[in-house]
Amino acid sequence: MTKISGESFENEYQLNYLLGAFAEVNFSRHVGIQPELLFSQTSSTTSSGFADIYKDISSQFLSNVHLHYLNIPVLLSVGGKFIRLQAGPQFSILLNSNENLLQNGESAFSNGDVSMVGGVQVNLPFHITAGARYIAGLHNINNINNSDSWRNQQIQLSVGVVL
Predict the structure, then answer these.
(1) Does the pLDDT at position 11 exceed 90?
(2) Which 3 state secondary structure label does DSSP give 149?
(3) CATH architecture type of domain 2-161
């Protein structure tokens, strides 16, 4: 579930997708890191105040905003065999469908987003994992002007298979 916070967007979460892979690097039985590579979508709906803030841009063309990201979280993972608390930074690269991967990589730092992640992962029988986490964007993703600050927010619920 994702939303973009700011005056020009509706204050509600929308369902989106998340797909990716992770690795567990344990330093001991209770502490490790979990680097991940995730593809995700963030979508939001512009509010009625969008046209008041951005007079030069027609909100009719931006009523439903869909942003695709390559997310790279690196999480500290602490806990036991079954339940682990996780926290750490996440860097996200905005993927532009009009550009190839190399071109997206060149603009990663100017169009990227930095977030903080916190959550819990439960390791279930049969190599199944389930998790819940909250992601708070720290970077203003508004690249139009400085009239309004936009930040990504996500609540992720996930199910995975450990190979």
Answers:
(1) no
(2) coil
(3) Beta Barrel (2.40)
